[in-house]
Amino acid sequence: MAKGILGKIGRRGAAAAAAVALAAGGVGLAAGNASADAYWYSFPYHASGHGVGVYSQPHANNQLKVAGDLSSVAGSQDEIRIECWVTSDNINNQGDVWYRVQGTYSPRYGYYTGQAFVYGAYVDNYWYWHNEWQSGGIGRCP
Q1: Could you give the CA distance from residue 138 to residue 101 in angstroms, rounded to a whole number?
Q2: pLDDT tens per residue, range 36-60
Q3: pLDDT at residue 126, rounded to an integer
């Protein structure tokens, strides 16, 4: 009888250990693939005081605009869905990091649901990039 109880406890313990290992592995995979996720980010959190163009490529060229300009000012309700970051044009010597987004929202223009690029300095003076990239929240675009 004692042997049967120990056998059951052993099997249950092994099953519990396997479940914990699988869960930990899943968390590790999720954290390692941060660029596959996208995060909604509201401008008022760290407003830059700039208008923010939404471009099909990470270049400040009006011919590449794909949505209405957003506003990064206090009280703005504009948002972007940040996926990852790239380096490209350095506008007015303010840096070269652009956020690749999977969409934008503005009460004025509504939702834009395609892929686009916005200039990090004008979004939030690179606050999101400095804080989320270093913590693993977003990564460099593949």
Answers
A1: 11
A2: 577 788 877 788 888 999 999 999 9
A3: 86
Question: How far is Cα 91 from Cα 95, in angstroms, rounded to an integer?
Answer: 7
Residue type, 78: D
- Joined together, the tokens standing for residue 112 give 């834009």
Mean pLDDT within 113-120: 96
Residue 23 scores a pLDDT above 70: no
The alpha carbons of the chain give a radius of gyration, in whole angstroms, of 22
Tell me which residue has tokens 């396997």.
18
Q: Measured between alpha carbons, how far is 30 from 22 in angstroms, rounded to an integer?
A: 12
Q: What share of the chain is helix, strand, coil (3-state, %, to 5)?
A: 40, 30, 25
Contacts of 34 (CB under 8 A, 6+ apart): 136, 137, 138, 139
Helices (H), the chain: 2-32, 120-124, 127-128, 134-135
Q: Does residue 53 sit in helix, strand or coil? A: strand
